[in-house]
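4.2 Preliminary Data

To establish feasibility before requesting continued support, the project team ran the inverse folding procedure on a target of 161 residues. The structure was first converted into the token representation described in Section 3, and no sequence information of any kind was made available to the design step. The complete token record follows.
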């Protein structure tokens, strides 16, 4: 479950944020070769002095920082292509100079991405982690104990119906 957190040192309208987030999800899904339902995008608009990046001064001071928490497994090429797509999207949406965009990746084992119904595996080519039904969590221990006490399930394990 990538978590893509953008910090902007300027205001953006709700419509701009929505369009931008949708474009980021499309870029991430396409370039990083995964589904879309688990991609989280957060946009935080701050005051100009709250987000400072030295390189952005040449482009008027507008800055966009991206902290991208992603699962292990993506290639150097994929990460570079995504960074360039983000830079282009930021420039096209808000006119931020390419020098004012900074992308930082932090990679994690899949087990560090927790959803309500599953733990994600580390990334593998062509996967959609939410489509894989084998990742459903096991029943909570209390539910397994109740099932065992009631006798349900025990017979199935021994081949009886």
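Position-by-position output of the design step:
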């Amino acid at each position: 479950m990538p978590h893509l957190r953008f910090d902007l040192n300027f205001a953006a309208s709700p419509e701009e944020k929505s369009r931008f987030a949708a474009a980021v999800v499309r870029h991430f899904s396409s370039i990083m070769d995964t589904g879309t339902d688990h991609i989280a995008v957060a946009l935080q608009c701050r005051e100009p002095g709250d987000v400072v990046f030295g390189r952005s001064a040449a482009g008027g001071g507008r800055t966009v920082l991206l902290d991208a928490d992603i699962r292990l497994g993506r290639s150097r090429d994929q990460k570079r292509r995504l960074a360039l797509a983000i830079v282009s999207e930021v420039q096209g949406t808000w006119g931020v100079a390419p020098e004012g965009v900074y992308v930082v990746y932090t990679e994690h084992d899949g087990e560090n991405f927790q959803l309500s119904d599953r733990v994600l595996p580390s990334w593998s080519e062509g996967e959609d982690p939410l489509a894989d039904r084998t990742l459903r969590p096991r029943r909570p221990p209390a539910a397994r104990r109740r099932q065992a006490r009631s006798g349900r399930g025990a017979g199935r394990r021994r081949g009886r119906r």
